Queue: 2 jobs
Job 1
Amino acid sequence: MSFERTKNIKRYIILAWIALMVMLSAGCSAKYYREEADQQVYEILSKAHQKLYDSVQQYDIEQLALDPLKDLPKSQAPLIEIPEAMKRFSSAPLMISLEKAFEIAEYHNREYQTQKEDVYLTALTLTGEQNEFSSQFGGLISGLWSKTGDEESISAEGGLNISRILKTGASIGINLSTEFLRYLTGDPRRTVASILAVSIIQPLWRGAGEKIAAENLKQTERNVIYAVRSLARYRKTFIVNIASSHFRVLQQRAVVRNERQNYQNLVLARDRAQMMAKAGRLPEFQAYQAKQDELRATDRWTRAVKSYYELLDSYKIDLGLPIDANVDLDNVDLENLVNSGIRHPDIELEKAVSMALDFRQDLKNVKEKVEDAERKIEVAKNSLGTDISLNFEANVPSKPDTQAAELRFDDATWSGGLDVDLPFERLSERNVYRRALITYKRMQRDLSLKTDEIKLEITSDWRTLQQAMESYNIQINSVNLAQQRVESTSLLLQAGRVDTRDLLESQAALVEAQNALVRALMDHTIARLEFCRDNGTLKHDQSILDSIF
């Protein structure tokens, strides 16, 4: 093999080695980094949840690729009677129970997904802060081929460095570098040299100590706690809103049924009035009155249907379903609620307020943010001080020529010193300090305001709940009286002792009372859920169904 060919082979081997090093340094795949981030974030969130609530909670921001309508049963009978012109679907709708609605909304509601992502991003920020206090590894590889006249050479340089910041504020750096040079033609010399460099810097005043150096890490850790609490509070509000929307749709369905029944009753009343008018037993104008009331009942019925479908479509958006999905609500939830009646919490106002001040997650966040603001004052004070730091450096060379792996510690260069940077200019730091003092006062006012807002909120909830209970009891009596009035008026009309107008008014009063009773039941149920949510007794990880039926 010729000498020239040998040179070319060596050159290609070196270039291939350099290319291989570059490819290896390209890092892992994007999928690996994503999975690594998820693992760290979910571990952080699970530990935070365990610390706060002493329970296990699965955090996952990935939406399941599942059909939300899969496995839903079809309605076996018409849920409501509606005018033919208002029918939208020819097939029977799929039925959604309240329990299934929570499951669908948890994975498909857009705002809820955003809230979960916000918590994830907060924990993701913490992984970056944690990484600041871990060992940082770096490496550099470079190669060069050059030719000058008849002289041809190759050189390479590589280095490995490790750095770390300690919570005391100290920074440590270690660097090992190697240089290689070889002439391929002419002078056959080859040289290899290495050097080990170590540096340590420890602040003594400004930036010194864990309370100062690790403040960003501590704040980010607390931000994760705040985010987990905020999500727990949001979830309570979320499930109460879903339940409220669910029951409002069922309430309107009951209104549709009542209006439909009223329309049918008025059709019978109009037929009876027309027959009695023909027989001369009623004035003809009373038959016209009956017909007018029938027409008004038809209009109320169609308007009730329109309102029902508008509420249902809005509820689909709340669940994250497409607006054209052929779904409806299972009537069993309304039946269970009607059968169980109201469940009124037996609790005094003062006790409810006290519980809210103890349990409310958002209030705990505000309290601890006051502590954060106070801690920031101390950090800002420290930044006004003098920069004083101890520094140490050491450089250890290798043996000459080709013994790069053997370091000569006896020939090392050691140095140490004290650096002092006097605080002649601290304008920006002064402003930060003054701003920290103002922020602390603001946070104290925010805490006072939040406390009063919660007291007002609980007081309003408690009064609403009491009023809803009274209204429900009143409406029960109202329905009973309205039914008795219709029965009595019907008998008197047959005996000719009252006119048709009396019967029509009694039937209208019955429909109004029936609608008011359903509304009062729903009002009390929703008020009770909101009361439990606001006083902190509605657990964020318990089935809300236990709090309803």
Job 2
Amino acid sequence: MRLSVDIGGTFTDIVLENGNALLSKKMLTTTSNPEVAVIKGIEELLNENNISSSRIEIIFHGTTLATNSIIERKGAHTCFITTEGFKDVLDIGYESRFDQYDLLIEKTLSVIPRKNRFVVNERINVDGKVISQIDTDRLKLIADQIDLLNFESIAIGFLHSYVNSKHETIARDFFKKRFPNKLISISSEVCPEIREYERFSTTVINAYIKPLMSKYLQILETLLIEKGFKCPLLLMTSGGSLTNIKNACDFPVRLVESGPAGGAILAASIAEELDLNKVISFDMGGTTAKITMIEDKIPDKAREFEVDRKARFKKGSGFPLRIPVIEMVEIGAGGGSIAKINKLDQVVIGPGSAGSMPGPSCYGLGGKEATITDADLLIGKINPKYFAGGRIKLLFEESKNVISNNIGSILQIKTELAALAISEMVDETMANAARVHAVEKGHETSGRVLIGFGGAAPLHIARVAEKLKVKKIIIPTNAGVGSAVGFLKAPLGYEVVKSLRSLLKNLDFNNVNLLLNDMRLESQYIIGNKSKDISFKEERFAFMRYAGQGHEIKVSIENKLLKENDIDKIQNSFENEYKKLYGRILPNADIEILTWSLYLSLFSKNNEKSLIKNIKFKKQVQSKISTKILNIISGEYESVPVFLRNDLNVGDEIIGPSVIVEDQTTTIATDNFNTHILANGYLQMDWNKDG
């Protein structure tokens, strides 16, 4: 038996895997003390199924706590220590404006203000040679300031420390001896890569959230032990793999996108199961919606992304974090996202959210603003009788009042039309985000399969599919807790990234092989599994460019001891990848390798994936139950048949519009789709029109 827990901005999802069966529960997130909802939800789920805590073999966990603490500026009182002359790197950034035409542009300020940054006289050059020894007397003066100002966390980032970490290590050891209870992050461990701005930014964010995350994880681990759990607690990383609690406490920056990564892993596993090569993963929860492109059953990955963008969709308006991450676009469009009227009398959605407290107005917890959930309730997409299995009572009149007061009366339109406007705008916002993301990746949205999960995605997915010209939709079982299910499917693995800069023609293969071996040992140590039934899967990559270029591309490297005669293979691999991106190569230019990446994961030799069987027959089914839903075209309520998902059988087919209800979510099929049940219980919605 295995458990997984996903803490979102609105709901905390818990899934229990008991053999082939999955049992789930949704709890409102207890924002101030998130462990409360986790423990309460786990206890309720186990008690309902007469299962003792001692029978659980492993617990997987993902959370948005790290992201929220950055966005809300609720991290620790932190200082930053760097090389003399580089105090302002965090403010200078890329020396560019993310919107050059905005005269009133607001730059995202560092979480560490300038007054809390200190400098040390030391210098190491680009080759790792010590030019100037570190000034230990200066460290003593900084220590006095740290003591006086009572900093909780210390970030250290020196120039070129990714090549030679000697001075950072000296500084860390000095402060650790002086302040044994303070948490310290050094850039040569957090992000041992070239480019000081990204390295410093990642280290600073790690230090900023380290006290909060390590305290939370340690409290959670202690509470689980007190409740009788004797199993390991593993954390989902932003890159889609799992790591242990010690590594998560040391490097919490790796957890910033841990929740959404679980959803992408679920979508990739569904693509594998159904043999789908071109997929859009659509995860819509209570606070945000996440969209990921999946090519050939593998989600797109990156090693850098931005958190806390001051301007939505504007690259450069947030903090760059250089960590392995599943690449996705995330927008403020969840069930709790707030709808407002802007200065142009347009309905706009998010990024603000009502969260779990006070939540949407219909929850009856004090919410006074119109949310997507309120609109869905008024339209008829959500039936109060079935919402959360009937455990959360929804107040229809409250939703009607807030939509009328905040939207309808301002635009002088009917309340029902205002609700339709909210729903249509959020669907268009999500569809547009998917279009932009696809274009940036060189893809099209048409001809793909849309996989939807999260509490709100099945409510909106058919309309989003119509806008994207997508003709096939998959809604998996347990879609309402999709990210938590994805945790159960994630590999136990860890990626190590380190810079070792060299021209390809001058590559020192002894140094490279030693580096890769050290990276493998580091990853294996973090994974920490010595079972004889499990073997390791190793993937290696080099980040390469033509000498003089500003950015590099990712190139796969063979998993073996590298030798001189491998230069031609590496060059060919680079040129093939470069030509895919830019349509040509530069035949006489030197090729340079900046950074190496090694990803190690565990897999069982007996754990082979199999495709599901095709259904040879379909049985059309009808329902005696119906509900009223506002039609987007006519603006009038129309009767739509209602089906309970648990009552549907493999091979059943529903023609045309329908409402399919389950405890954690509701699936809405529009006129353009027929729905049938696959052999594994998934819902498949197919376009039923010609052309």
